[in-house]
What does this fold into?
Amino acid sequence: MTTRIAADPENVEKGLIQLVLTIVELLRQLMERQALHRIEGGSLSEEEVERLGRTFLALSERMDELKEEFGLDDKDLNLNLGPLGDLL
Amino acid sequence: MTLLLYAIADAEHALPPGLSGLDDRPLRSVAHGRLSAVVGECNDAPTVTPAALVRFEQTVEELMGDGTVLPARFGTILSDEAAVEQLLSSRHDQLADALRRVTGAVELAVRAAWLDDVAGPSRPPGPHAGAEYLLGRLERRRRAEQLAAVIDAAVGDLARERACRILARPESPVTAAYLVSFPRVDEFLARCHNLEATIPDASLVCTGPWPPYSFVTREQT
It folds into this structure.
């Protein structure tokens, strides 16, 4: 079974940005899930929840700005991992 | 001339007469052991366009109408018939098991969407904006998990298998696929329809029957 990729040089830069933002989004979601898990477990103080929340809020807003700047939306920030399904 | 794979079926699966695929190319079966692969000629890997995806999907659905098939992932190409036979040979038992698993069943998809604004009302950041953000996310995830449980309680007993994603997108609390035997499809759709009226904060859309894409991916790829 073979898979062929039609590479378009003009899209390489956008593709690279898309890949980088996808990885950043993956890390953001993983960290956020970890934070939610810790809140549920009661292992964070109110101050820590506030500080973490502000960090994730800022990161989320920055991601929105970058997506808009490069003409990407949520569904662009994903990778199909074949048998493992989608990354996000 | 390369071959585009549409589906894998039982060796005795008969192709509907005159069925064609992308670019109106005729389809044919390549058999090996208990399996057959439905392929059509193509010049190169097909370009992913909405029209091509719809045509591919319609073709697989027509194949499904004639008996159970394992739908192929769009764009799976093989160099020639020998490569098709090699695929069927090397994964024969795995594919036969996957086919048996979905025999007599179809996929029904259930997708929920929040009725309220996902982002919530915008307001100037207050002294507890961080906590409000995180606790809001936590609350939304809990609501999504509760909704998934409600859907599953309503229709889960009609399904052989299920695949469910929570908050795959911010606006979609639940994206689920159910593998349902033919005789139970109508009841599944009716229950979904009735269920929506009981859910206050999300809309529910049930689509299908589809070829069982969500239940064969692991085996086929």
